[in-house]
Design goal:
mainly beta; Methylamine Dehydrogenase, Chain H; about 50% strand
Length: about 150
Amino acid sequence: MELQPGFSLWQLLYMQSTLTFTGHSGEVISVAFSPDGSAALSGAIDRTLKLWDTTSGWEIRTFIGHSGSVYSVAFSPDGRTVLSGSSDRTVKLWDVASGREIRTFIGHSGRIYSVAFAPDGRTALSGSGASASPEPARSSIESVWP
């Protein structure tokens, strides 16, 4: 039996996995719940994000646009947009309903390992690793944007 990349939904009280999500063609690196818990978002080595129904396990949509592995994903507080950070050194903002890319943020010199929305959803953070240039390695939050 060949193993498929995926991730699991765990019932913490019972300490067991109740649902497995498969569909990426590469390892899943990051996952996040929607604010209401009805959906999950995954980012993977296959350069895509996928939106999933957490009741059925069905894939709702795939977000395509990164040219590198997706290392971090996050839902906005209202659940209408998501962020992704990638080894392509970009952060992308996506519309959940349509799956369309809203905006690409550039400026990091290394792969993006972490993204997060502020509680009000109006700003976001992104953190990157070592610089690809001869500059000293950085491992800190580099960007905040309105």
